[in-house]
Automatic annotation (TrEMBL):
It catalyses: a (2E)-enoyl-CoA + NADPH + H(+) = a 2,3-saturated acyl-CoA + NADP(+); (2E)-octenoyl-CoA + NADPH + H(+) = octanoyl-CoA + NADP(+); (2E)-dodecenoyl-CoA + NADPH + H(+) = dodecanoyl-CoA + NADP(+); (2E)-tetradecenoyl-CoA + NADPH + H(+) = tetradecanoyl-CoA + NADP(+). The keyword Ribonucleoprotein does not apply. One of its GO terms (molecular function) is trans-2-enoyl-CoA reductase (NADPH) activity. Residues 10-197 form the Ketoreductase domain. Participates in chain elongation of fatty acids. Catalyzes the reduction of trans-2-enoyl-CoAs of varying chain lengths from 6:1 to 16:1, having maximum activity with 10:1 CoA. Has no 2,4-dienoyl-CoA reductase activity. Keywords: Fatty acid biosynthesis, Fatty acid metabolism, Lipid biosynthesis, Lipid metabolism, NADP, Oxidoreductase, Peroxisome, Phosphoprotein. GO terms for biological process: fatty acid biosynthetic process. It comes from Peterkaempfera bronchialis. It is an enzyme of class 1 (oxidoreductase). Pathway: Lipid metabolism. The lineage of its organism: Bacteria, Bacillati, Actinomycetota, Actinomycetes, Kitasatosporales. It is found in: Peroxisome. Its EC number is 1.3.1.38. This is Peroxisomal trans-2-enoyl-CoA reductase.
Amino acid sequence: MLPPGSFEGRVAVITGGSSGIGETIARHLAALGATVVLLGRRPDALREVVASIREAGGSAAGFAADVRDRERVEAVLAEVVDRYGRIDHLVNNAAGNFRVAPEEMSPNAWNAVVRIVLDGSWHCTQTVGRHLIARGGGGSVVSIGTTPALFGDPDTAHSASAKAGVLAMTKSLAIAWGRHGIRLNVVTPGLTDDTGAVSQLFAAEGAYAANLEKIPVGRHANRDEIAEAVTYLLSDHAGYVTGQNLVIDGGRSLGIG
Ligand SMILES: CCCCCCCCCCC/C=C/C(=O)SCCNC(=O)CCNC(=O)[C@H](O)C(C)(C)COP(=O)(O)OP(=O)(O)OC[C@H]1O[C@@H](n2cnc3c(N)ncnc32)[C@H](O)[C@@H]1OP(=O)(O)O
Ligand SMILES: NC(=O)C1=CN([C@@H]2O[C@H](COP(=O)(O)OP(=O)(O)OC[C@H]3O[C@@H](n4cnc5c(N)ncnc54)[C@H](OP(=O)(O)O)[C@@H]3O)[C@@H](O)[C@H]2O)C=CC1
């Protein structure tokens, strides 16, 4: 979609870049010329994706990090700046989720998800934001949302609440950091094929098909469709777009709100 070379000379950090939607975002950014830096907990998964991006001619590196660990996030991002001289873009994609009734959710279960999604996005965004402000010249951040953050979902209250927080964080920082040339937006996908969400949340018999029936366009999203929206919002072509939430769900949530 974007012209080749749109991200030439740029460095983009993608959390959860070793699988699912994050992996596809990383591949798209690398194909457009960015050096992509992937964060995730499993070193083997990171190694595999980094090798495959390099084989395709891209520039990539992986760092094992749990985004809940503030010190580790700061250390890794400092190393990225040391190695490449800059960070221009951040994608807050790492997430955890599982279905559990709210009255049965343990404190630890709530914390596990909220700390990955909300705290993890905050750790990365504030650290990258401080770098961008100190360096000058601007940059951009895209965080991945979810439709339950907008309309609620009884079985994933932890995730919906944390993602609603990420949306509020995005709008708040878009106001605060606009004068530094830093833009922040959210992309909110509907159910996307070939991802952890499908295996984690829609594994029960009939669940995937039942969701499909409620989608006006008659299919689920594919990973490329989400990655293309993310690369657009990160790019200079979206230079006047900030604090926004782009919902890409085939019309699934129309009529709910
Ligand atoms: C308008 C509505 C339309 C709806 C249309 C739907 C649209 C699609 C929406 C899809 C949204 C998708 C969002 C996603 O984020 S999908 C991403 C899925 N990927 C992952 O989750 C991968 C990463 N996940 C994990 O690492 C783990 O699952 C976890 C989040 C749990 C974190 O791992 P960690 O090792 O840190 O945590 P623990 O295993 O130690 O567990 C911590 C506590 O959580 C409890 N727990 C874990 N799993 C469950 C479960 N399935 N049910 C209940 N409780 C669970 C665990 O027991 C621990 O608590 P306790 O110590 O109290 O036992
Ligand atoms: N797929 C879908 O249908 C939808 C997805 N979304 C959102 O899109 C994003 C991607 O989802 P999806 O592709 O399904 O996810 P996946 O489960 O496929 O991938 C999640 C990625 O996040 C990483 N990750 C998880 N926890 C942490 C952590 N604590 N620290 C660092 N990295 C972590 C995982 O790597 P590792 O395990 O090695 O740490 C993995 O690379 C998420 O934000 C999700 O909420 C929103 C709506 C729909």
